[in-house]
Amino acid sequence: MTGQDYALIAGLVVILLLGIVALVAGVRKSRRAQLPPEQRSPFPGGAGAETGERDQPPLTDPAGGAGAGAGAGTGAGVSAPTLERPEAAGTRFQRLKARLSRSGALGNRLLAILSRGDLREEDWEEIEETLLMADLGLGPTTELMDHLRTQAKVLGTSDPAAIQGVLRAELLRLVDPSMDRALKIEHVVGDDGEKHPASILVVGVNGAGKTTTVGKIARVLVAEGHDVVLGAADTFRAAAVQQLSTWGERVGVPVVKSDKEGADPASVAFEAVRQGAADGADVVLVDTAGRLQNKAHLMDELGKIKRVMSRKAPVREVLLVLDATTGQNGMRQAQVFSEAVDVTGIVLTKLDGSAKGGIVVAVQRELGVPVKFVGLGEGADDLAPFDAEGFVDAILAG
């Protein structure tokens, strides 16, 4: 074949390909013309595909207006996510108790000393030092040591098992199993005479894990069969709002939030309570921005949030989230928050962080309010209602 023959064949191939492209384009144009106007996007994935948003469900229910719940609606043709089933609250502490036992530095040291028998003065000093290092606090430590020494004189120190029994009884007395640790989630009647869900405000310093804790408490309540609404009142961090929305989506819990970053947190909290009442929810959990306890204006803001929420119905609980690894530094935090918003319960996170179990006694003694939840891990269900007897047994089982 000559060069002209090759050129002729190449030209025919190009003409054929152009014809095929034109035919396909004509078919697509004809199909788009049959679609409703809002769906006639020139992009393959529909409107927004050019920005990488194809197949993404809307963040809020299109019909929900302000405060629509996260995960309340999904885009047409997009299947709803499979909801997770949270672990039952009754089994959580047993699992966390085993984890606490494995990390039992406090129990290991105490039992090692007591097992020596015939305790000398230096042994008693070592016991006292161990308790202080475990963040038990000076007052509770002195009290425990006095009782322990008195009983040791009666029983004799040559029987380690007897002294260990006394230690368990004294620790249990300090942790105080008689404190009411139940979360107050009964419906209340507001000033308007209507029945409202129990509202719970969650507060704490930066980095304590408040948003995660709110999500985990929601899972506990869902596992118990309660209808929950979450309020994203940490309006200064878009990441916190998105994080709380994700927690809600995983278990089908609506999240009330503002589309405006830096919006008034009190208004978001109020809207959450209003939405909870409208939905017939059992509990409204409101997350707040982390704040340093030495910033007076930020602490005043918490008081405002609580007052505004109370316009619909009384706030049943104010839960203070404390990082257990902060030890005695957390005591000042607890004092200031309690003065600002009248804390009713403590949530201790990261309790498996070495020998800091004494913080349970210290914070309860300082505030006069109970530890209601403890967290011992980063898993979604690694938060459990606190059990005093199980806690003491766990730290002594090491």
UniProtKB/TrEMBL annotation:
The positions annotated for binding GTP are: 204-211, 287-291, 349-352
Ranges annotated as spanning the membrane:
6-27
In terms of domain of life, where is this protein from? Answer: Bacteria
- UniProt KW Cell membrane keyword: yes
Where is it mostly found? membrane
UniProt record similarity statement: Belongs to the GTP-binding SRP family. FtsY subfamily.
Summarize the protein's role. Answer: Involved in targeting and insertion of nascent membrane proteins into the cytoplasmic membrane. Acts as a receptor for the complex formed by the signal recognition particle (SRP) and the ribosome-nascent chain (RNC).
Query: How does the annotation summarize its subunit structure?
Result: Part of the signal recognition particle protein translocation system, which is composed of SRP and FtsY.
Q: What name does this protein carry?
A: Signal recognition particle receptor FtsY
The species this protein was found in: Bowdeniella nasicola
